Amino acid sequence: MDVNEKYFSNITSRERAIFEGGISMGALFHQFVGTPVNIKTKEGLERTIEESFKLQPAIEDVEVKINLNDNTGFDYISLSGDMLDVRIHTVVDDVKAIIRIEYIEELNYPLMYVEEI
Amino acid sequence: MDVNEKYFSNITSRERAIFEGGISMGALFHQFVGTPVNIKTKEGLERTIEESFKLQPAIEDVEVKINLNDNTGFDYISLSGDMLDVRIHTVVDDVKAIIRIEYIEELNYPLMYVEEI
Amino acid sequence: MDVNEKYFSNITSRERAIFEGGISMGALFHQFVGTPVNIKTKEGLERTIEESFKLQPAIEDVEVKINLNDNTGFDYISLSGDMLDVRIHTVVDDVKAIIRIEYIEELNYPLMYVEEI
Amino acid sequence: MDVNEKYFSNITSRERAIFEGGISMGALFHQFVGTPVNIKTKEGLERTIEESFKLQPAIEDVEVKINLNDNTGFDYISLSGDMLDVRIHTVVDDVKAIIRIEYIEELNYPLMYVEEI
What we know:
The structure is a homotetramer. Chain A is an alpha+beta fold. Chain A has a single domain (12-116), classed as 7,8-dihydroneopterin aldolase (MptD) (Pantoate--beta-alanine Ligase, Chain: A,domain 2, 2-Layer Sandwich). Helices cover 33% and strands 33% of the residues of chain A. Chain A is built from three helices and six strands, in the order ααβαβββββ. Chain A has helices at 3-8, 13-32, 42-54, and strands spanning 36-37, 59-66, 77-78, 84-92, 95-104, 109-116. In chain A, the strands form two sheets. In chain A, strands 2-4-5-6 form a four-stranded antiparallel β-sheet. The longest helix of chain A has 20 residues, at 13-32. The radius of gyration of chain A is 16 Å and the shape is elongated. The two termini of chain A are 30 Å apart. Chains A, B, C, D: Belongs to the archaeal dihydroneopterin aldolase family. Chains A, B, C, D: It comes from Methanobrevibacter millerae.
């Protein structure tokens, strides 16, 4: 069976680049929120999130930055969505997209959007 | 700040309907996989997954079916992706989309795709 | 195989009541943190968390209360550990225990402890 | 406030070593089940799980082994409980415990138990 023909012929390459990036961003957030983290484990966790989600369909690259700034008084904290600054790079045929999550001060929550396409 | 104008003017309504549905489908999978479930708690869990993800942006409706068929010998099992049959209905302006996950026999894994748009 | 004899003969009933409650409390926290929730879905989510974790070994009852007090300005928020007030009742032979998580003001984090045994 | 005196004086050091290990084992399972993994990312994920859960109270060491044996036909799979072989070493005062999860053939599921104390 040709999966692409059977299940993805109703959307364009551009739309699929957006779709696969959206899936992986939603997945990444809900998989890792809650993980214990501190300044010493931050980088290892960032790399593991990147490597894990690079495995998903159409994902070319993942860049993860965890912001711990305001949490210095604890031995460790639970990773929350507000700490995530992530770019997921997708590629489908000749279309590339970057899906972003970042905490937006004015909104007071982390927003997922299409940064580049 | 107009969030839509600032962060979403680079994609069409159709693309955003796909994007938001993709996010919620990836999120739903990774949030609930691992939850203890059996035949008695299945319906309550289905309804809670639906209600939780209807809260997310652009989501009009969520239909969740958990397939427990092959797991009758246990008191309970951990929810896995293979058991999920889910439709997420999104609406952005005048565009409606249905994002689906279902286990595909031939692929031997659960596929996420755009069922209708 | 007698699982209890083979794997649990090295601990007392009291210790196992504490062990199973600890497992379920850690599990519950990390399974559900991140779930979208608001005032309308709160009760359904509380009941589903209770029903799901009542399935685990030695769990007699689970009481879940989600505190949303400080989050009234949003359509919904991600469930965090600070919002959880949970009692897990375990029973092993003639021993009963209650494992608790609650946010402790003085500590500024949610603490898991044995409330009664 | 002395947390140990206020919240943990009703259990022995041995009981607390079991309690904290149980919490972390339940937490670890439900945090990471669902994570995309393959042979190339396996080791990084194992190390990140170890480092993350070493942060929790009373945890001295964590050893994680992910068994991928039967999943060679895929680009990647979702981590499931059956693949986990984990030892969590706890220490409270002069008491040491090892909490284990491993897949038990005869039971056909992964069992959590106290391996040594």
